[in-house]
Write a structure and sequence with these properties.
single chain; about 150 residues; alpha/beta; five-stranded mixed beta sheet; about 20% strand; disordered C terminus
């Protein structure tokens, strides 16, 4: 198991989760999490890249309830920072959720056909046998991709 706070994940416990990396986003994080809960997300993993006000402190209530897992991820350099965090997530979170959205803190998933993405059927996207995010990043180059959805189970 990788740097996941020694959390064993053995069975799919969520339909839709989100994974993001943040640094000094304390003004936006509570709204971002609250909004995505309303539209159907049930778990969040946020990699904290050395925020001045730690993400764990900003989202203390959400962390205490098990809604958010924070992983400290300081000192890494761009451009590999985001891919390193996402690859770390893939190394341990395979059974955390059926689907995971890899999105930025300034991005909001907006359901188009209902009030919730939790009722969406993402099977049309197909099953992507991804072990590392870099396995398919080349297919996204040049595309305006708001969200990458992966089946992990």
């Amino acid at each position: 198991m990788a740097e996941a706070g020694n959390v064993a994940v053995s069975a799919t416990s969520h339909y839709l989760a989100a994974c993001a990396i943040a640094r000094d986003e304390s003004a936006y994080l509570p709204e971002w999490v609250a909004y995505h809960v309303v539209v159907g997300f049930s778990h969040f993993t946020i990699y904290d890249n050395g925020s001045t006000i730690p993400v764990r402190k900003v989202l203390r209530g959400e962390v205490d309830r098990g809604l958010v897992r924070v992983i400290d991820f300081p000192g890494r350099a761009w451009p590999s920072l985001q891919l390193d965090a996402y690859n770390n997530y893939l190394s341990w979170a395979r059974n955390l959720s059926k689907w995971t959205a890899f999105i930025d803190i300034d991005e909001f998933i907006v359901p188009k056909s209902s009030d919730s993405v939790a009722t969406a059927d993402f099977r049309a996207l197909g099953r992507l046998p991804v072990r590392r995010l870099s396995d398919f990043v080349h297919t996204m180059l040049g595309l305006a991709c708001i969200c990458c959805m992966l089946v992990l189970a």
